[in-house]
Design goal:
Blueprint lengths: L4 H28 L2 H6 L2 H23 L4 H8 L5 H11 L1 H10 L8 H29 L5 H14 L8 H24 L5 H16 L10 H30 L1
Length: about 250
């Protein structure tokens, strides 16, 4: 993989934007608020500061990488694709998660719009935008990377951000494997859908929402029964993606 000067610059900008998820908190702590004032801010507020800042920075860098053209930036991220089909099929594919939750789990008593936004809608959108759209999509489409190195880098970065859910080293290893696998899967869906970011976004949101509505476990590892229904959901998403990919290629060949 030989990169030109511009592609090296794009790579540097992409890695800077993606890694801001981990370093931007230090900017707030040491340069914006000061350590004491920053620590006095609630954890929830800090998380909002960080995610909004990361999304804003990545959007700005995508705009720069796309030669300051908003339409090209949206295209490179995969936000200008068919949203209706992506929404409908993602909803259909994740139905088993809700059936399993309804049959085998208890509803979460604290479920509401606030928890749905904070734990499903917002992270589903922002994580897919950054790790799949910005990292995977732009590394391949704007920085000249091969697909496999790009998805591996984004999957590792994605998994690293979920290690806080683990209680010990063994659980951390399992969380890392599950979330990195999820990151690879979402990236493959992204590519199979013709760089349509909306399908992995809605899959991520609907899967997370089932965790919020029902008590399926303490972290992404879930319980044994819940994992059966998660597996069925993933299988349906694979079948739907293969069929859609085949249909689009067949239509293009006519």
């Amino acid at each position: 993989m030989v990169l030109s000067g511009k592609k090296w610059l794009n790579t540097a900008l992409i890695i800077t934007g993606a890694s801001s998820w981990y370093w931007i908190k230090y900017v707030y702590a040491y340069l914006v608020f000061g350590v004491e004032r920053y620590n006095a801010i609630s954890v929830e507020s800090r998380q909002w500061f960080i995610t909004i800042s990361v999304v804003g920075l990545c959007a700005l860098l995508a705009f720069v990488i796309s030669s300051f053209k908003a339409k090209d930036a949206a295209h490179s991220l995969g936000l200008d694709r068919n949203i209706v089909t992506a929404l409908a099929l993602a909803a259909l594919c994740t139905v088993p998660m809700y059936i399993g939750g309804w049959v085998y789990a208890q509803p979460n008593s604290n479920f509401g719009w606030s928890s749905a936004i904070q734990k499903a809608i917002w992270p589903g959108f922002t994580e897919e935008l950054v790790f799949r759209g910005f990292v995977t999509g732009l590394l391949v489409r704007r920085a000249g990377w091969h697909f496999i190195p790009a998805i591996l880098l984004s999957a590792v970065a994605f998994a690293w951000g979920h290690l806080y859910q683990a209680k010990d080293a063994g659980e951390a290893a399992m969380v890392f494997l599950v979330t990195s696998g999820a990151g690879i899967g979402f990236a493959i869906f992204y590519k199979m859908w013709g760089w349509n970011l909306w399908f992995p976004i809605f899959m991520h949101i609907f899967m997370n929402l089932s965790f919020v509505i029902f008590d399926l476990g303490d972290n992404v590892l879930l319980s044994g029964t819940a994992n059966i229904f998660r597996g069925i959901t993933i299988l349906l998403a694979i079948v739907a993606s293969i069929y859609l990919n085949y249909s689009s290629k067949k239509a293009a060949a006519v």
